[in-house]
Amino acid sequence: MKKRLVVYKRSDEPPVSSTNSSFTVRNVRYGECLKNHAASMGGYAVDGCREFLASGEEGTDEAVTCAACGCHRNFHRRVVETEARLSYRY
């Protein structure tokens, strides 16, 4: 079985028209599953899925379903990594 490890989204803000400009790169990945499988019984139990693995290709309905646990991507912890970059014009 081929694993798809992480889902990334990239957002680049256009640089400001000056000699020094910057833009922000955001990487989004989805970590462990937080779905409570025992909620209907009044308990708390998670399935132990450690990271979101997409079931299908990007742009399909299967892309938001985890191949490991079968849960929707919204049940997985969202981790946003932001990086500011400076670009200089001469």
3D architecture notes:
By secondary structure, the protein is mostly beta strands. It contains no helices and two strands. The protein has strands spanning 20-33, 76-88. Strands 1-2 form a two-stranded antiparallel sheet. Residues 30-79 form the ZF-HD dimerization-type domain. It comes from Escallonia herrerae. GO terms for molecular function: DNA-binding transcription factor activity; transcription cis-regulatory region binding; zinc ion binding. It holds the Pfam family ZF-HD_dimer. This is ZF-HD dimerization-type domain-containing protein.
Strand order of the largest sheet: 1-2
Terminal CA distance: 50 Å
Please state the structural category.
Answer: mainly beta
Largest sheet: 2 strands, antiparallel
Strand content: 25-35%
Instruction: Please provide the ordered H/E string of secondary-structure elements.
Output: EE
Amount of helix: under 10%
Average predicted local confidence, pLDDT: 81
Compute the number of strand runs: 2
